[in-house]
Design brief:
heterodimer; A: mainly beta; four-stranded antiparallel β-sheet; 0% helix; B: mainly beta; six-stranded mixed β-sheet; five-stranded antiparallel β-sheet
């Protein structure tokens, strides 16, 4: 089954404790990206990657890092989480680098105390 | 700066009737538009898209209309069914330094009542 898998789905952590949200896709997609969804703000792109070892900032990259060492994986790293990073995070991938529909994971709800 | 706007946070429609969800955009460079549907505790799922060279695209009960001069698109669902109750996001993209990043609206919550 074609899917984008994120882990963990739910996490409560404390300020400053590094965490990683993993994302894996099994569709051989070149393009992957991370979004966060906040009430009243919709979905905003954090980082994206057009291919292995190629990553770039989206609209709200502050406080986040990513890496793309393999085509299927695109982890989101919060080196020193803060309460304003409490949000619902979605990983997504798509076939084409420039166009095509995005396939989303089920989301990771992160709470930073 | 919100480039894609969905000005109706919610919409309630009776089963069997037409649901019309609206979306406006400000960036004239957008050339690809999509609608996504989201149920609680799930990721958004792709519904339908339209390229700027068209003004209409249809897929079963779902039709998207694009009015480029007005920078407006709409999603029509006919007939509406209770299972259509979800949050609908409009999204738009344009080739840019960020690649074809999708710019999303804030969403419209549709409730279809029996």
């Amino acid at each position: 089954e074609a899917q984008v898998t994120q882990n963990p789905r739910y996490l409560i952590t404390v300020t400053g404790k590094k965490l990683t949200v993993t994302c894996s896709q099994n569709m051989n997609h070149e393009y992957m990206s991370w979004y966060r969804q906040d009430p009243g703000l919709g979905l905003r792109q954090i980082y994206y990657s057009m291919n292995v070892e190629v990553t770039d900032k989206g609209d709200v990259p502050e406080g986040y890092k990513v890496s793309r060492k393999e085509k299927r994986n695109f982890p989101l790293i919060l080196e020193s989480p803060s309460p304003n990073q409490t949000s619902l995070y979605f990983c997504a991938s798509r076939t084409g680098v420039w166009t095509g529909e995005l396939f989303f994971g089920e989301g990771s709800r992160l709470t930073v105390l | 700066d919100q480039q894609v706007k969905q000005n109706s946070p919610s919409l309630s429609v009776q089963e069997g009737r037409i649901s019309i969800l609206n979306c406006d955009y400000t960036n004239s460079m957008f050339d690809y538009f999509l609608w996504y549907k989201k149920y609680p505790a799930e990721g958004p799922t792709f519904l339908i898209s339209i390229s700027s060279i068209k003004d209409k695209n249809e897929d079963g009960r779902f039709t998207v209309f694009l009015n480029k001069s007005a920078k407006h698109l709409s999603l029509h669902i006919v007939p509406s069914q209770p299972g259509d109750s979800a949050v609908y996001f409009c999204a738009a993209s344009a080739e840019s330094n960020s690649g074809y990043a999708l710019n999303f609206g804030k969403g419209t919550s549709l409730l279809v009542t029996p």
